[in-house]
């Protein structure tokens, strides 16, 4: 395993480099761009065709990522053939006290295949 420091807004890898892409609560923290959809697109750029992805973030926070149905439609417009958004904030493993909107109440998982 190799660790490489880089910005999520400009990954230092060629197109379709990886078989899988995983991100957990990263996109909303990236400060060098306000284009959060661009971060998702950049993460998917490095994914091989047929590769799987799982991206968890505050995807139900509309002021940051827009309306969930528009977000999914946008991702599909990039040629992603299989994409699903799961509202993980409702999962039983999330403590009730954290399910508030200002905590993880806007948490969602986008998963699928390129």
Characterization of this structure:
The chain has 3 helices and 4 strands; from the N terminus they run βαβααββ. The model has no long low-confidence stretch (mean pLDDT 93). Helix 1 (36-45) links the parallel strand 1 (18-24) and strand 2. 21% of the residues lie in helices and 25% in strands. It is of the alpha+beta class and 114 residues long. The chain has one domain (18-113): Vaccinia Virus protein VP39 (Rossmann fold, 3-Layer(aba) Sandwich), CATH 3.40.50.150. A 4-stranded mixed beta sheet has the order 1-2-4-3.
- Overall pLDDT level: 93
Percent strand = 25-35%
Tell me the CATH architecture: 3-Layer(aba) Sandwich
Radius of gyration: 14 Å
**What is the CATH domain class?**
Alpha Beta
How would you characterize the largest beta sheet? 4 strands, mixed
Count of strand segments: 4
> Helix and strand string, N-terminal first?
EHEHHEE
Strand order of the largest sheet: 1-2-4-3
**DSSP helix fraction:** 10-25%
Please state the overall shape, judged from the principal axes of the Cα atoms.
globular
Structurally, the number of domains stands at 1
CATH topology: Rossmann fold
Alpha-carbon distance between the two ends: 23 Å
CATH superfamily: Vaccinia Virus protein VP39
Global structural class: alpha+beta
Low-confidence stretches: none
Please, how many helices?
3
